[in-house]
Amino acid sequence: MKPITELTRDDIKDVKLVCFDVDGVTIKKGTQIKVEETPETQTMTIRTRLLAREMRDKLIELKKHYFIAINSGRSTIYLKDVFNELLWDNVALIGEVGIFTLAKGELVQHEKFDEKALAKMRNIRSELEKYADTTRISEAFEPKQFLITFHTRFDDKNVHEIVKKIDPESEFAVIWSGEAFDILPRRLNKGTALVSLCKYLDVDLSQTIAIGNGNNDRDMTETAGIGVTTEPKVLRSDFYTTGSQHLGGFELIDKLLELNR
Ligand SMILES: [Mg+2]
């Protein structure tokens, strides 16, 4: 691993696309969901962090030089709200770990699911709903098309058990992110998401840089031509940011802008 300060013009001479993780890299972590239900109504409150103005301005500057991809497990609706001012030219918003991409004025679905997978997803969700009801905990699901994101206060063993009962073949991964469980088909990850996007845009993977901070970003940083980590203790990669700024994404953007001057 090398510090990002050692990235050279030669390293990036073929780069066309820069791919960013969201939470902790371009936006501060921390999403809270609260649901209140009566027999007839549901009120959902979602508290998320916005894209800082400084990050927005730098990303807009960066897209004069590169195609920018935002690669996330979040829904494309959420991403559209937060990254709205970046749209539409030279930007793709990858939602639900590559199931969808919002780009060039269209929402593309890259992944389809067979009946068996759909039934499993439906059953996992309804069993988790029952579990949340019986335990009377205020846990809630993030609104998404396919991915199941179940917010809990801790890495609850019961969630693993519930999924295992419905999915003994372990076709679904159950990933605790620190604020929620992501439950998704094992074949999907942020690396396959980047592959789908590159196919769609006709960009070679060797022409990409990807930056992330966690274990769920590993497939993405390893798939990209150049990988960058903002948490070198958790995620190893070709380059690491030094932590001199509160969000690691800034260091990569600043370095790329400097090398393009
Ligand atoms: Mg991450």
UniProtKB/TrEMBL annotation:
One of its GO terms (cellular component) is cytosol. Pfam families: Hydrolase_3 (PF08282). InterPro entries: HAD-like_sf, HAD-SF_hydro_IIB, HAD_sf. It comes from the Bacteria. One of its GO terms (molecular function) is phosphatase activity. This is Sucrose phosphatase-like domain-containing protein. It comes from Candidatus Woesebacteria bacterium RIFCSPLOWO2_01_FULL_44_14.
